[in-house]
Design goal:
This protein has 475 residues and is an alpha/beta fold. It contains 15 helices and eleven strands. Helix content is 41%, strand content 12%. Bound molecules: pyridoxal-5'-phosphate.
């Protein structure tokens, strides 16, 4: 067979990608094409005959025109979304070209070793205990799932029940204690774990969304059996961080007689990265006393989608929960961390390699710098919006999140007004911020998570937000 022409389509793709990246600072942030129009254009019958790869790339680029939301713009403040750094994105391309099915060191030595090193760097930056093992998963959802699965294994094992062998049928009842503001992926994990959402005992939170230690104390006082407690660092709206040290103190009192009965998991999808900054780390004080941690690389660390980080303090529990071997696979040299033992995937992409490249390029000060800059920009948003008529910042801006309540100028319907402001912002193109409901109030969320955001971005975005707020309905 003739050697395939890799160069032409890949160079075209690189050109189109570089064009996209070069336009980011000036182009409209929200997608301008409507999805129905895109479907009309793209939903053609699959052709009988194939076509030239370079043509596929060119037409792909042309066909999606207007339909790409510039989530990696420094003025995209929707949800909690980072944008790749050059080293991370370039490494991501190599991961695709190398095609390493990264599961065991014997098969793909370089990428398994790179992930092991990236895992150690993350563990050190995040201040996790030395023995902690780390698996690179698809996101916070799966990282939460891993931590809760490991907890389920450990607390049931402590009462003599082998959940990996016997499942949950006939098992002692397990309770999962969560804050009232736990992220939806925690309850979803309980579905995937066969525990069900009703296994969750919800505990009261304060006005920022932080779990209250007295409420946790009351909840634990009413439970004798195995318990997994899920704490949170970084509320998806307010950025609030549970008082982790005080909560673990409560847990310690309740497990004093039987330390294996209660497992503590921390959902720090973005908030855990605050530990990388000496200024913000005290907010998470005590976080290293948890048993498992979930965080994302694709949010605050600004690694390309998708990449989450699942960390478990006890390597034996981590491996017992997830490990798998088959007759046709190598045994796995015990000196290495095998992705097959620390992630729920079987075949998988080397998604830890872009983490390695990102951390090398940023260094410790670079990671701390992202946390500190984005938090400073969030405080600037707060300051510029404070005192404006009909606008109220309703959270303590402790990290990179700002919750902005907007009152309908007509005094009729705040939710409709917030939705209209978000839609006007999207259409205006200056920035994107998304609606939410926070403690019963309609608000716009501003999440500053992108490493490129600067003071000009903040100024321009605040101006756009205030214009959208002042625009009459239908205008
Ligand atoms: C984003 C988020 C998640 C889910 O993470 P994904 O990467 O979207 O799967 C879980 N918990 C919190 C607190 C989050 O902010």
């Amino acid at each position: 067979m003739d050697r395939p022409d890799w160069a032409t389509p890949m160079h075209r793709a690189a050109e189109a990608a570089l064009h996209h990246l070069a336009e980011l600072p000036d182009a409209p942030v929200g997608a301008t094409a409507d999805a129905g129009g895109l479907l009309d254009r793209l939903d053609v019958p699959l052709a009988g005959e194939g076509c030239d790869p370079a043509t596929v790339v060119d037409e792909l680029v042309a066909d999606v025109a207007g339909g790409i939301t510039r989530m990696n713009s420094g003025r995209f403040f929707g949800w909690v979304i980072g944008g790749s750094t050059p080293a991370g994105l370039a490494a991501d391309w190599l991961v695709s070209a190398w095609e390493q099915n990264t599961v065991l060191v014997e098969a793909t030595p370089a990428t398994v070793v790179l992930e092991q090193v990236a895992g150690r760097w993350c563990r050190e930056l995040l201040g996790l205990p030395a023995a902690t093992t780390i698996g690179f998963v698809t996101g916070g959802q799966m990282a939460n799932w891993v931590g809760l699965a490991a907890g389920r294994d450990a607390v049931l094992s402590a009462v003599g029940w082998d959940v990996e062998a016997d499942g949950l049928q006939g098992a002692p009842r397990l309770t999962v204690v969560v804050g009232d503001e736990a992220h939806g992926t925690v309850a979803r994990s309980l579905r995937f774990l066969g525990l069900g959402e009703r296994a969750a005992r919800r505990v009261a939170v304060d006005d920022q969304g932080r779990m209250r230690p007295e409420a946790l104390d009351d909840a634990l006082a009413g439970i004798d059996g195995p318990v997994v407690v899920a704490l949170q660092a970084g509320n998806v709206n307010s950025g609030a961080v549970d008082p982790i040290g005080a909560l673990v103190d409560v847990v310690d009192r309740h497990r004093a007689a039987d330390p294996g009965r209660i497992w503590v998991h921390l959902d720090g999808a973005f908030g855990l990265w605050a530990v990388a900054s000496a200024t913000h780390a005290p907010l998470l004080s005590g976080h290293d006393r948890c048993d498992s941690w979930a965080t994302d690389a694709h949010k605050w660390l600004n690694v390309p989608y998708d990449c989450g980080i699942a960390a478990v303090a006890d390597p034996g529990v981590h491996r017992r929960t997830l490990g798998v071997r088959s007759s046709y696979l190598p045994a796995g040299d015990p000196r290495f961390v095998h992705p097959l033992d620390v992630t729920p995937e079987h075949s998988r992409r080397a998604r830890g390699v872009p983490v390695y490249a990102t951390l090398r390029a940023l260094g410790r000060t670079g990671v701390a710098g992202i946390v500190e800059r984005t938090c400073a920009h969030a405080r600037r948003f707060r300051d510029l919006l404070t005192g404006v008529d009909g606008v109220e910042v309703c959270n303590e801006v402790v990290l990179n999140q700002v919750v902005v309540a907007l009152a309908d100028p007509a005094g009729a319907d705040d939710a409709a007004h917030v939705a209209a402001v978000a839609a006007r912002l999207w259409a205006d193109g200056t920035c994107v911020a998304t609606p939410t409901s926070w403690r019963g109030r309609s608000a716009l969320r501003v999440s500053v998570s992108n490493w490129t955001t600067d003071e000009d971005d903040v100024q321009a975005s605040v101006q756009a937000l205030l214009r959208a707020h002042a625009t009459a309905p239908g205008a």
